Q: What sequence folds into this?
């Protein structure tokens, strides 16, 4: 599920926004840790919850995509997290880890998409330190450049200290 829906998020709404995707995962993990501190929501393993958070965010980004659930039912992606929750309960899995992921995913989606659309401020803007980590470790694609900046100048500005070391004439050694 992570491979399919995480990659679709990375190639879709989070394309060339690696820091925002990383921030979504960090926010989700921290939210799940805080929620699991509540005795009612306590869970020893939050991996399932993080996957459900990712699936929930994906389902909100692609609400009209058609999903085929185990070859039995076809439904819109908007309902996918709830269908997976129902299947997990039917198969005997606990409900709380799935619900924690849905809550964390909804909180992220509300704070980054719904609240700003309603006229509010984007409370959950990606912090500068996350952008610095992504730039420092060169994770993902570099951020898009404006048309006024040439590509070489943008690359030099994005990563100071890197670039062309020698700009002279070159000769082949085997001639």
A:
């Amino acid at each position: 599920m992570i491979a399919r829906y995480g990659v679709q998020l990375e190639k879709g709404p989070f394309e060339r926004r690696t820091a925002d995707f990383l921030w979504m995962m960090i926010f989700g993990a921290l939210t799940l840790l805080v929620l699991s501190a509540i005795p009612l929501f306590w869970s020893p393993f939050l991996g399932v919850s993080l996957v459900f958070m990712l699936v929930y965010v994906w389902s909100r980004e692609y609400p009209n995509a058609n999903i085929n659930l185990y070859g039995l039912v076809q439904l819109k992606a908007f309902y996918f997290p709830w269908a997976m929750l129902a299947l997990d309960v039917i198969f005997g899995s606990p409900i709380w880890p799935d619900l924690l992921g849905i809550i964390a995913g909804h909180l992220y989606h509300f704070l980054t998409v719904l609240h700003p659309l309603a006229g509010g401020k984007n409370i959950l803007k990606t912090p500068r330190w996350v952008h610095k980590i992504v730039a420092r470790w060169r994770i993902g694609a570099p951020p898009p450049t404006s048309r006024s900046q040439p590509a070489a100048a943008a690359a030099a500005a994005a990563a100071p200290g890197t670039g062309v070391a020698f700009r002279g004439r070159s000769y082949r050694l085997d001639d």
Remarks:
- The first strand starts at residue 66 and ends at 69.
- The helical segments are 2-11, 18-36, 47-61, 80-90, 96-117, 128-137, 151-158.
